[in-house]
Design goal:
- The complex is a heterodimer of chains A (129) and B (335).
- Chain A is of the alpha+beta class and 129 residues long.
- Chain A has a domain of 25 residues.
- Chain A contains 2 helices and 3 strands; from the N terminus they run ααβββ.
- Chain B has one domain: T-fold (Roll), CATH 3.10.520.
- Chain B has 8 helices and 17 strands.
- Classes of the chains: A alpha+beta (129), B alpha+beta (335).
């Protein structure tokens, strides 16, 4: 049953297609042409024209925006910004001289370095003693 | 980006030398503030020097040296110091002899030279005898000394006197470094015998300057991430005896006289300050040829009588020649 219905539908479609593709003969001499229905809105641009104009306008706006974007980006090249702050602060905490020649004196310096290194302190020295 | 790091720079005088501590931030949260730690270590070093001084009659070392018994009760510190001296003697084949107290005194070194103006090394070199390497004394009695930790005794022949000064500063630097293990980075400088440690120092090594014994100017720097650096030289403990002869404190064990070997200074690197100090003295007493062997593995710098500088072995740093700078980064010296 289903196959019969399908075959009928296909036949009908083929028939319609045949009708559309049959060349239309022009008005024969002596016979007047059949009146055609008047086009809707025939005084303004047709649909295709409107569609094309709309697309063109949209593309123009896009192009304008793209141009502005490119101009702004090339004017100031973007670079990664690294903020490096180096602060060396040397703070003398205590300085006292002990009594006698035994040299009980102590010198204390506390160095604060933002670089994380010991650069603020002078290098230790190895020497004979 | 701002990484703030503090480092305490703490200097005081002890053991006849300037002592300097550089202490970085705490690694262990329970460690005290670096300033508190430095005060604590100063007390430790002062005590260390007083207890082990052969110039103080009330020191533990003097008590040992004058004790009439063969087996003498000794504190853990004294036992450790004597053990370090014996280790250095063994390591040097007897060149570093801790039993030369009598010879030192006969040569005029019977009192501390702290604060004394040293004699001119340049003048001394002019008048010094022919250069030759020092030799160990095969009859030295340091081999007879024993340490009994269980009984807390030092056993030695009566009359054999010990001097821990040859290894004392290196040992002290190592001891303080051990006590500073709770900090990210630190330097312990005991009169030029230096211990470096801490994870921070391994990431960013310290630059240690080397002082020339004749000019007293820096001859370069070595980068040290951990371990020890030490310098032995003739330029500080040097004097003229009553007869006008020049003498210094590094004796030839074989003769008991000051050693004039052709070298006036040696800087050595080692895994510890004690080892570095031992290497530096071994090299200086052994003369140029022996020094090249001693320093070949760990690295170092020798300074000849002429003042010429010779880097030896692996040195990570820059050693200045008389005329230019030589970058010895990596494994090889250039001269």
């Amino acid at each position: 049953m289903a196959s019969t219905t399908t075959a009928t539908a296909v036949t009908a479609t083929m028939a319609a297609a045949t009708e559309r593709t049959t060349p239309v003969a022009g008005p024969r001499p002596g016979r007047s042409a059949a009146p055609r229905p008047a086009r809707r809105g025939s005084s303004g641009p047709d649909r295709l024209t409107v569609l094309l104009l709309t697309v063109a306008a949209f593309l123009a706006v896009l192009a304008l925006l793209a141009g502005q974007l490119r101009a702004s980006s090339t004017g100031a090249p973007a670079r990664p910004v690294v903020v490096l702050r180096k602060v060396y602060e040397t703070r003398v905490v205590t300085t006292m001289q002990g009594p006698g020649g035994g040299g009980g004196g102590t010198s204390v310096t506390q160095s604060v370095s933002s670089s994380g290194s010991a650069a603020a302190a002078s290098a230790p020295t190895t020497r004979a003693s | 980006m701002t990484a703030v790091s503090t480092e305490l720079d703490y200097t005081f005088h002890a053991m006849g030398s300037d002592i300097r501590l550089l202490i970085g931030p705490r690694l262990v949260p329970t460690a005290p503030d670096p300033l508190v730690a430095a005060d604590r270590e100063k007390a430790y070093v002062l005590s260390f020097g007083q207890r082990l001084s052969r110039f103080r009659h009330d020191s533990e070392l003097s008590a040992l040296n004058h004790d009439p018994r063969t087996a003498v009760p000794a504190s853990p510190l004294l036992r450790t110091a004597v053990r370090a001296g014996l280790w250095a003697a063994e390591r040097s084949g007897g060149l570093l002899d801790p039993t030369l107290v009598g010879a030192l005194e006969r040569n005029g070194y019977s009192a501390s030279l702290d604060g004394a103006t040293p004699a001119s090394l340049s003048e001394a070199l002019v008048h010094a005898p022919a250069r030759r390497p020092a030799q160990p004394d095969p009859n030295s009695r340091w081999r007879e000394i024993e340490i009994d930790d269980q009984a807390g005794l030092i056993v030695r022949p009566v009359g054999v006197m010990l001097d821990t000064g040859g290894t004392g500063k290196g040992l002290c630097a190592d001891a303080v470094a051990h006590r500073l293990g709770g900090y990210t980075r630190f330097v312990v400088d005991c009169g030029g015998d230096i211990a470096v440690g801490g994870v921070g120092a391994q990431l960013e090594p310290y630059e240690i300057e080397i002082e020339h014994p004749l000019t007293r100017r820096p001859v370069g720097t070595v980068r040290v991430a951990r371990g020890g650096v030490a310098t032995s030289g003739l330029n500080v403990r040097i004097w003229r005896d009553p007869d006008g002869r020049y003498a210094h404190h590094l004796l030839d064990p074989h003769t008991g006289a000051p050693a004039w070997t052709g070298l006036v200074g040696v800087t050595a690197l080692g895994s510890t300050a004690l080892e570095a100090e031992t290497f530096s003295k071994m090299a200086l007493l052994g003369g140029p040829e022996r020094a090249r062997d001693v320093l070949a593995e760990s690295g170092g710098v020798i300074v000849h009588d002429s003042g010429a500088i010779e880097p030896i072995g692996p040195i990570n740093g820059v050693i200045l020649d008389e005329t230019d700078a030589t970058d010895t980064s990596g494994e090889r010296r250039t001269r």
